[in-house]
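In this section we walk through a basic example: taking a raw amino acid sequence and producing a predicted 3D structure, encoded as discrete structure tokens. The instruction is simple. Fold the sequence below.
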Amino acid sequence: MSAPPRDDVLIARALEHDEDAWRQLVERYASYIYTIAVRAFRMDVEDAREIVQESLMKLYEGLPSYRREAPFRAWLRQLVRNCCIAYLRRRRPTEVLDDSLRDREQEEAFDRIEHAFTLREAIGSIEEPCRRIVTLFFFEGRSYRDIAAALAIPEGTVASRIARCVAKLRSKLAEP
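The resulting token sequence is shown next.
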């Protein structure tokens, strides 16, 4: 399995009007945008969907101004944050937003979202057998016995494979 293209490669291609690169950026970040709207701004499903559409439109318009001084996801997060605040101001003009947004809680939500997406990217970058065993054990909560049956391996092998795959995952997470 080849690694998915890096953000900077997709951005450069998208700036050259490569529709496939733009589609890949959208697929990569639509759930990130949605998660920010729901978790950091406590929006309902419909409002979050509006934010995804609005943010993607702003991203498309603003992509030429991205200067690569900060990681793309940090730049996108700020763009989404601005879209969310503007949206809330339009939808709830009489509310004081500072009280409803709770900056500290919002920053903690941003940190959790960032960690989750970083982990998801790292899991996506390891080979399929490791991706499968990590998913079965950590995300589905399956027992060693269930994992052994699902992967058709001896139960005694499950622990060593989990350890080996976690080491690979840690290595990926340590990469710059």
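Looking at the output, two observations stand out. DSSP finds nine helices and no strands in the chain. The two ends are 21 Å apart (CA to CA). In the next section we compare this with other chains.
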